[in-house]
C-alpha cells in the first residue's frame, strides 16, 4: 500500500509545471453503464454504455507563488474574451500518484477567510485513456516555510469603494467542455469549449438593496490581488464585467451584521 | 495603563501566541509552517484592591494599552507593552483578614511585546489599599452567617472581526450580556439551603446585591451594579462538614449586566 507522502500530484502545462500542494486528491473513471428492460422479462435484456468514458480528477490545494492552475483557468477565460482560441493550450497533463492523463480544466474555486491560508479546489475532466499505474512520487520537495503560499493577510481588495472592506471572499469558475464524437469512435474527435461562468462572493459590512444600473456599474470593478508574504503576486482575480446576482444580509447572535454580495459573469 | 500608573500589582503574566501550523500535503518530504488563525497575546495581572480599582473600568467597549517598565526613565525602558488590550475577565476576591485581591485578564488584538512606548507615563502617588475590616456585603441571607471569603467575577467575552489583507481586527465588540457571578463561603448559622426541586423559576434572587469597602481614610470602593444587574440568582450551593471545623456552605450567585 502507498501512504499519502509517497504519492504526489503533479501538474504539467504551458502555464507552468510542478508539484501541487494538495490536501486531498481523487480520480474517478465514469463508464456510464445502463440497462434495458423489456416487457415480459424479469431480468435486464442488455447492458450498454450510454456515453463515452469520462475521467475526473479533483483535488484541493494551497495556491503558491509557482501555481500554474489558476493561470490555466484565467488563460482560458481571458482567451475567450479576447477571441484567441485558448483551446490550443489544453488539455493539460495531470499525474496523480503515477496515474496520468490529459485533462480539460472544468471547475476551480477558492475561498479566502480571515487569518487563514487560501485553499482552492480544482476539477479536471478527461475523455481519453489514462496511463501509468500507482507509483511512488517522483518529486522531492522540502518547504521550510509557507512564505510563498497565498494567505488572507496578503489578499488586497481594490477597486469599488463598497468592496474595500471585505470580511471574506470566494471565487469560482466553471467551464463546460463539449466532446464531439464520430460514429464508431470510442474517443472524441475534438473537444470544444462551449460556455463558462464565474462567480464572486464578497462578505461586507454594508447592505444596499437599490440595484440600479449605476450600482451594477460600480460593483463590477474590484480586483483581489493575492501575494506571497514577500509581496510577490500569486494571482489577481478581476471582477470587471460581472453583475450583481444577489445580496444577502444576515444577522446572528453575538456577531456583526454581514452582507454577502454575489457577482456573476458568463462567457 | 492608559497613561496612569497601576498600584498594588502583585503578579503579571504576559504571553503571545504565534498562530502557526505545520501544513501537510500529498507527496511531502517535510511539512511547512504557515499562519493559521488570529494573532493573539494575553495579559493577566493580579493586584491588591486599591481605591483607584483600575481594572474595573476596563469592562467597557474600549481597548486599552499599557506598558510594564523599569522604574527609572520608564518611557525608554519598556519591558513589555501591549496595544488594543480588551478585558475578558475581572475577579475580585478576599478572605478573612486579607486585603482583597483583583485579577484582570486581557486579550490583546494589536501588537504586544517589546514595542515602542506610547503617550506619557504619569507616575502618580500611591493610592490607598482597601481595609479588609471594612467589607460590607449586601446579601440578606448572610446577616447571621459569617462570610469567610468571597469571589466576584465579571466575564466580558469579545468578538473580533477582520478584513481581508489585515492580521489585526478592525473592530472588537463585547458579547452581551456580561455575566456577573459571586461565590461566598460562609460558616453556617441559620442559613437554609435551597432544594433541588426549587430549580425551575423559583430560584432565590438577590435584588440589591453589593460589596462595599473602604480604605483606611474612609474612601469607598464599591461593587454596586444597582438595577443594571438582572436576576442575581442562587445557582449552586455546596455543603461541607468535617471534624475540627465549622459547618461550611459555599453559595454561588449568577446574573447578567444589562
Question: What's the structural blueprint in terms of helices and strands?
Answer:
The complex is a heterodimer of chains A (267) and B (258).
Chain A: E1 9-13, E2 16-19, E3 22-30, E4 33-36, E5 46-49, E6 54-61, H1 69-81, E7 92-96, E8 99-112, E9 119-126, E10 155-159, E11 166-180, E12 190-204, H2 213-219, E13 222-227, E14 233-238, E15 243-250, E16 258-266
Antiparallel strand pairs in A: 1-2, 1-7, 3-6, 4-5, 6-9, 7-8, 8-9, 8-11, 10-13, 11-12, 12-16, 13-14, 15-16
Chain B: E1 9-17, E2 20-23, E3 32-35, E4 40-48, E5 64-69, E6 78-95, E7 101-108, E8 112-113, E9 136-137, E10 146-155, E11 158-161, E12 171-174, E13 178-187, E14 205-206, E15 210-214, E16 220-224, E17 229-240, E18 248-257
Antiparallel strand pairs in B: 1-4, 2-3, 4-7, 5-6, 6-7, 6-8, 6-10, 9-15, 10-13, 11-12, 13-18, 14-17, 15-16, 17-18
Structure description:
The complex is a heterodimer of chains A (267) and B (258). Chain A has 2 helices and 16 strands. Chain A has 267 residues and is mainly beta. In chain A, the strands form 3 sheets. In chain A, strands 1, 2, 3, 6, 7, 8, 9, 11, 12, 15 and 16 form an 11-stranded antiparallel sheet that branches. In chain A, a hairpin with a 5-residue loop joins strand 13 (222-227) and strand 14. Chain A is globular. The model of chain A has no long low-confidence stretch (mean pLDDT 87). In chain B, strand 5 (64-69) and strand 6 form a beta hairpin. Chain B is built from no helices and 18 strands. The mean pLDDT of chain B is 89. Chain B is an all-beta fold and 258 residues long. The chains are: A mainly beta (267), B mainly beta (258).
Distance between the termini of chain B: 27 Å
Tally of helical segments of chain A: 2
Overall, the morphology of chain B is globular
- Secondary-structure element pattern of chain B, one letter each: EEEEEEEEEEEEEEEEEE
Secondary-structure element sequence of chain A? EEEEEEHEEEEEEHEEEE
Amino acid at each position: 500500500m502507498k501512504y499519502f507522502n509517497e504519492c504526489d500530484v503533479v501538474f504539467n502545462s504551458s502555464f507552468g509545471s510542478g508539484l501541487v500542494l494538495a490536501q486531498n486528491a481523487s480520480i474517478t473513471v465514469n463508464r456510464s453503464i445502463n440497462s434495458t428492460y423489456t416487457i415480459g422479462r424479469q431480468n435486464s435484456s442488455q447492458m450498454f454504455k450510454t456515453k463515452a468514458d469520462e475521467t475526473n480528477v479533483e483535488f484541493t490545494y494551497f495556491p503558491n507563488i509557482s501555481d500554474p492552475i489558476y493561470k490555466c483557468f484565467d488563460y482560458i477565460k481571458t482567451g475567450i474574451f479576447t477571441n484567441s482560441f485558448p483551446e490550443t493550450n489544453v488539455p493539460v497533463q495531470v499525474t496523480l500518484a503515477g496515474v496520468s492523463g490529459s485533462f480539460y480544466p472544468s471547475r476551480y474555486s477558492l475561498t479566502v477567510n480571515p487569518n487563514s491560508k487560501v485553499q482552492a479546489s480544482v476539477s479536471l475532466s478527461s475523455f481519453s485513456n489514462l496511463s501509468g499505474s500507482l507509483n511512488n512520487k517522483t518529486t522531492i520537495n522540502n518547504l521550510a516555510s509557507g512564505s510563498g503560499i497565498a494567505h488572507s493577510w496578503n489578499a488586497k481588495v481594490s477597486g469599488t469603494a463598497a468592496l474595500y472592506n471585505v470580511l471574506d471572499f470566494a471565487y469560482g469558475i466553471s467551464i463546460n467542455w463539449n466532446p464531439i464524437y464520430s460514429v464508431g469512435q470510442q474517443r472524441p474527435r475534438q473537444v470544444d469549449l462551449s460556455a463558462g461562468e464565474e462567480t464572486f462572493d464578497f462578505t461586507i459590512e454594508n447592505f444596499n438593496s437599490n440595484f440600479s444600473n449605476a450600482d451594477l456599474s460600480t460593483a463590477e470593478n474590484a480586483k483581489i490581488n493575492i501575494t506571497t508574504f514577500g509581496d510577490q503576486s500569486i494571482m489577481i482575480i478581476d471582477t470587471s464585467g460581472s453583475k450583481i446576482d444577489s445580496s444577502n444580509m444576515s444577522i446572528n447572535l453575538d456577531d456583526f451584521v454581514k452582507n454577502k454580495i454575489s457577482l456573476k459573469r458568463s462567457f | 495603563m492608559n497613561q496612569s500608573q497601576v498600584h498594588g500589582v502583585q503578579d503579571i503574566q504576559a504571553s503571545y501566541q504565534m498562530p502557526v501550523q505545520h501544513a501537510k500535503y500529498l507527496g511531502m518530504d517535510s511539512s511547512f509552517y504557515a499562519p493559521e488563525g488570529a494573532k493573539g497575546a494575553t495579559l493577566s495581572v493580579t493586584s491588591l484592591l486599591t481605591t483607584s480599582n483600575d481594572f474595573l473600568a476596563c469592562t467597557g467597549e474600549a481597548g486599552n494599552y499599557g506598558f510594564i517598565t523599569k522604574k527609572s526613565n520608564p518611557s525608554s525602558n519598556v519591558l513589555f507593552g501591549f496595544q488594543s488590550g480588551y478585558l475578558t475577565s475581572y475577579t475580585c476576591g478576599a478572605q478573612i483578614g486579607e486585603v482583597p485581591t483583583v485579577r484582570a485578564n486581557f486579550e490583546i488584538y494589536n501588537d504586544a511585546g517589546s514595542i515602542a512606548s506610547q503617550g506619557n507615563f504619569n507616575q502618580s502617588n500611591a493610592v490607598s489599599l482597601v481595609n479588609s475590616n471594612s467589607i460590607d456585603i449586601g446579601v440578606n441571607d448572610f446577616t447571621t452567617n459569617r462570610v469567610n471569603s468571597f469571589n466576584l467575577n465579571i466575564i466580558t467575552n469579545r468578538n473580533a472581526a477582520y478584513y481581508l489583507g489585515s492580521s489585526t481586527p478592525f473592530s472588537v465588540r463585547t458579547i452581551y450580556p456580561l455575566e456577573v457571578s459571586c461565590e461566598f463561603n460562609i460558616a453556617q448559622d441559620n442559613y437554609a439551603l435551597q432544594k433541588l426541586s426549587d430549580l425551575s423559576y423559583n430560584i432565590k434572587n438577590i435584588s440589591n446585591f453589593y460589596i462595599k469597602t473602604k480604605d483606611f481614610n474612609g474612601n469607598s470602593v464599591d461593587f454596586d451594579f444597582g438595577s443594571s444587574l438582572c436576576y442575581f440568582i442562587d445557582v449552586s450551593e455546596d455543603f461541607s462538614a468535617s471534624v475540627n471545623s465549622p459547618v461550611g456552605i459555599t453559595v454561588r450567585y449568577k446574573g447578567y449586566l444589562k
